[in-house]
Every structure is written in C-alpha cells, then in structure tokens.
Design a protein that fits this description.
Elements: H1 2-17, E1 23-33, E2 52-62, E3 67-78, H2 82-97, E4 106-111, E5 114-129, E6 132-146, E7 150-156, E8 159-166, E9 169-182, E10 188-211, E11 219-239
Antiparallel strand pairs: 1-2, 1-11, 2-3, 3-5, 4-7, 5-6, 6-9, 7-8, 8-10, 9-10, 10-11
Length: 240
C-alpha cells in the first residue's frame, strides 16, 4: 500500500514539474453561424444570422504535462439577413392576427446585429510535438447575448400594425474547440483555433393591430432562438 501511495505521489510530482509553460493570448477571426441561428425559415424560431466577427482572449494554465485548465473570453457579432426576415415576419403577423397585408402596404422595417460576450472555463489537453502543440478543450460558462433590434411598422388603408422586439440575455453557454500552436521562441507563439459555441437567446415581443379609430389589444410573445457559431481565429500567445 505504501509503495502504491509513493508511486502516485511520485507520478503527480513528476507531472507537475514537467508541466508545459502556461500562456495568455489574443486571437481574432470569423464567427460563422450554423443551425437555426443561421436558418431563414421561421421568424419566431430561427436567427437569420450572417457571418461576422469574433475576438478571443485566451488563458491556459498547465499543472501537468498535457493537462491544464483554460479560460476564454469572447466578443462576437453577427449581422442579420434583413430581406428574408422582413418577408417572414410579415407572414408571421398575417397568421398571428388572421389578416392579409396587401402588397402595396407601407412597410418600415428596422433591424440590427446579434452581439454576444462569453466567459468560459474548463479543462484543456495539449500535446506538445517539438515546437508545435495540438490543443483540445471543452469549456462552459455564461453568455451575455443581445439579440438584434427587430421593429416593423405597417400601414394600409385604415389599419396600422406595430411589432417590436427587445431583450438582453444571460444564459448558459458552452464551447468545444481545437487549436494548433507554433512556438518559434521561448516567449511568443502563433495560434490557429477553431471553436464551436452554443447558447440560447430569448426575445420579448409586442404586437398590436389598430383598425380604424379603435386601438387593438397588445399581444406579447417570447421567442427562444438557439445561438450557435463556429469561431475560426488566428492570434498570438505569450508564455510564462
């Protein structure tokens, strides 16, 4: 029993002593939406998100030869396919209120972009091969998501339709990633990474149809839309 305990202690000490250098880094690149986040089929279920931008701040601390713990802070932005969203939102309002909006109706549509900030932490495995290391990580944490502004105003004859959305979300999110890091010297490295990120956003909506002099009833709704994207980035690292 004593020999087993000594072996375990010796193994842990050897792993800690031979641990890789830890590092902090910054990387930037594209945010590529996937799944329902990128789909353009249902105004109340899909995100209409376009490819955008991501900025990552990374920190990895290694306590054994290949095993460590990593943290990632990400800012991401995705545009909105306004043309498709406007068409589908009009269809949604027609079905919701059982009305037909004529083709010559006056439509004013306002939209903006998706933005999110992620704060994730989790285990990381890094396999060093001379000056190159291959990294795999799984992280989870908090996502701060701001859905795009979605406001539509429609008028025709004696009818006026108002529909608008708002919301700022704090939700659970997770990240699965891989990277290759090249270290030309002791202090700095070049890193290429690809991560899959997933979370969920909620949009609070209000709709109202005014026909003639009477104001219509305000109808409220909550839309839940998954936020999923690949982050493909390149950046630099500083080792310590």
């Amino acid at each position: 029993m004593k020999k087993i305990n000594l072996f375990i202690i010796s193994f842990l000490i050897t792993g800690i002593v031979s641990a890789q250098d830890s590092f902090i880094g910054m990387a930037m690149g594209g945010s590529i939406p996937v799944g329902n986040y990128a789909a353009t089929t249902e105004a109340n279920q899909t995100g209409y998100a376009l490819s955008g931008f991501s900025l990552n701040f990374i920190g990895d601390y290694y306590f054994m030869k290949i095993l460590g713990i990593g943290a990632t802070a990400t800012f991401g932005m995705n545009g909105t396919d306004e043309f498709e969203l406007e068409k589908d939102w009009i269809d949604y309002l027609e079905n919701l209120h059982d009305i037909t909006i004529p083709p010559d109706a006056n439509v004013r549509f306002i939209s903006s972009q998706w933005t999110y900030v992620n704060l994730f932490i989790g285990p990381i495995i890094s396999i060093p091969i001379k000056r190159i290391s291959i990294e795999l990580k799984a992280q989870g944490g908090v996502s701060f998501i701001t859905p795009p502004k979605r406001d539509i105003y429609i008028t025709y004859e004696d009818t006026e339709i108002n529909s608008n959305s708002s919301g700022s979300n704090i939700a659970f999110g997770y990240l699965l990633g891989a990277g290759i890091q090249f270290r030309p010297n002791e202090a700095y490295g070049l890193r290429i990474g690809a991560d899959y990120f997933a979370s969920e956003a909620k949009l609070n909506l209000e709709h109202r149809v005014d026909e003639g002099p009477e104001e219509g009833k305000i109808v409220t709704d909550i839309w839940e839309i998954p936020v999923q994207a690949y982050h493909v980035t390149i950046g630099i690292s500083y080792f310590f």
